[in-house]
Amino acid sequence: MRATQQPDNEKRLLLQATNLSKRFRLQRDRQRSLQETFIHLLHRRRSDAEYFWPLRDLSLTVRTGDAIGILGQNGSGKSTLLKLLTGVLQPTTGEIHTNARIASLLELGAGFHPDLTGRENIFLNASIYGLSSRFIRRYLDSIIEFAEIGEFIDTPVKHYSSGMYVRLGFAVAVHTQPELLIVDEVLTVGDQVFQQKCMHRIEEMLDEGVALILVSHNVEDIRRLCQRAVWLQNGRMRAEGRALDVVDEYLAYTNELFYAQQRAEIEESPANMITAPNAQRWGTYQVEIVGVELCNTKGQGTEQFFPGEMMRIRIHYMAKERIVRPTFGLAIYRRDGMHVNGPNSVDEGYQLEEIEGKGIMEYCIEQLPLNPGRYELTVAVYNHNATVAFDHQHRMYSFDVGARHGRHEEGVVHIPATWRHISVEEEKVVAN
Amino acid sequence: MHQTQAQTNAVRLPVFVDRPRTRLATLWRYRTLLYNLVLRDLKARYKNSALGFLWSLLNPLAMMVIFTVISTFLFRDNNVPNYPIFLLAGLLPWNFFSVSVMGGANSIVANGYLINKVYFPREVLPIATVIANLVNFLLALLVLFAVIIFFGMPFSPWIWLLPVVILIQTIFTVGIVLFLSTLQVYYRDTLLILDVVILAWFFLTPVFYPASVFPQAFEVAGVTVNIQRLVYILNPMASLVNMYRDLLYWGYRTDLDFFLRTSVTAIVIFAFGYWFFARHSDDFSEEV
Question: Which of A61, A73, A124, A205 is 20 to 30 A from B191 (CA-CA)?
Fold first, then answer.
């Protein structure tokens, strides 16, 4: 949570959007020629079927210091909403009132001309945001410094790396002294170091009372930066509220959707396909993993865990024949592909003599050491020396580790450890 | 034109606090953008050429040579004294017009990626194209002055009217360009048709020949028409070229009725072009 938590009536109203709807005509990218137009004039019929509404009845109020996250799958209306808020599109119905300076990071480096130098492009780009020459000159040095372009500032931007290009674009956008910053997925560009810098700058601006509207597929960014969140689905507001709650709700929904797809795919593939490899699942299926159950401390099945909680992974299997000394294994991945661990039962000294028929193998994590984020699980049963897969299900299950209170630790794992301060004198004593 | 005519009561969204009331005031606030776009146009045009902006001077000289050579074959009997000056006084304004129209008509579509991402008053794009070409035209006029001096012709005492004529032409051109750039958004055929129209227009305008080649009295279906006068009335560019020539070549003050009629035409075209543009510009981001 941010420090700028004033009561609502003390915060200045920056933007008020009421019942925004936007209607588009379908097949818009089909270029109309004069010929078609004449035909169109002759058959002048128009039905509602030709239109679609990427956004319907959306209302949004932004005050100083607000940080609002916008969640939703592709095509849910996020981009349309941002374009309406920045004035690029006009709403079909509804109203937008604003008296704020808005800077949008929809497209960094908009209007950069490849043949012009970085410096010339700063003037061009900043004037697209409506800034005066005097204003731009005042912040020129600061922009160049922030962008870390160095001596290349007087080189045509066509010679820039994509990173430099984006850095310069970001530097101009954040120097426009906005009261409301609209950010769309841009935090995924540039290298790690610059991403950190952007994030830091955005946090600084938030502390200064700048309002933020953030669209991101990375729910972690929304958890971290926003107090409020809006979940859009098919152009309508599906949920609105505290960012942590909306993110959890959204994740639960997408997880469910993900599983439904997975199940549908598994049902589609015929059962007697023995070794046909599948991107997600392969094996001889002499032993089949029929289900995986994730249980929390209370023993309830869930996909939502919290750091430090108990997590039991129960692998339900069905051995179609007698299997001697099988190996059970699993692996946890972060959603972005980072491999967290990959234990198996044999290596950890757990020998099963034989299995046949139904059974359950349990892997119990006493205190979940994972930091908040979205994870995926691989489960597998192999033969005794782990050379033949009976059933390998690669990253087919996912679960979510939630954040309990606002800010949380960076990285994948939380290593249980203790802090202690040692003064110089103490260390000498120890050394002697 | 297809416009989504729903109950649009939305408030135009500004980027800055002091929201201006009118469109022209918005344009004024974005004058820095206009200036930078003109600069971008001019810089980008000559950035990678060895001679750079010298081309603005060389181009009219080269054209002058070509047309002078050709015209000696074309109009052997109709000998115009000091033909290079006569030609440049018509060709330079014509080039300003035609290059502006061709570039300006495409300016909205060509900058579609910008229109889709950022809000700014869209008219800066076509207007910037015209102004960039105006700057080029002014540079080319220097060549004309040099040629006048070279031929030892006196400058007309009415030359102070030249900026007014340039202003009228600029207003006229902006009007045409605002209209055509809007049309081009909806019908991409516009530019293709324009190619042909501009070529025909060029030949119908007394640019490289004197208007006196047209008959003063011509019988059409039993009615006597003054074709020469008709050309001027129907073609504002013919009037403009004539005015330039009066001031730069004939050393004549140019006729007042001519002057007024062309000014009124230019202002009407401008007003219509702007109105048409403003009516549709909110939808540009959906169409480009």
Answer: A124
| Residues of chain A under the 50 pLDDT cut | 1-6, 28-29, 46-48, 270-277
Please state the domain count of chain A: 2
Q: Do B118 and A25 touch (CB under 8 A)?
A: no
pLDDT (tens digit, 9 = 90+) per residue, B196-254?
Answer: 999 999 998 988 888 877 777 777 777 777 777 778 878 899 999 999 998 888 887 77
| Interface touch A33/B189, C-beta < 8 Å | yes
pLDDT in tens, A320-337: 889 999 999 999 988 877
A412 part of a folded domain: no
> Do residues A246 and A277 both lie within one domain?
no
| Cα–Cα distance for residue pair A129/A136, rounded to 1 Å | 11
The CATH code of the domain that includes A54 is 3.40.50.300
Mutation target vs A (from B31, B107, B117, B287; most A CBs, 10 A cutoff): B117
Would you call A13 exposed, middle or buried from its count of C-beta atoms within 10 A (0-12, 13-18, 19+)? middle
CA distance B249 to B145: 11
C-beta neighbour count of A349 within 10 angstroms: 6
Q: A287: closest CA among A373, A393, A377?
A: A393
Which residues from chain B sit within 8 angstroms of residue A124, using beta carbons?
36-37, 39-40
For the complex shown, is ipTM > 0.95? no
Does a structural domain hold residue A77?
Answer: yes
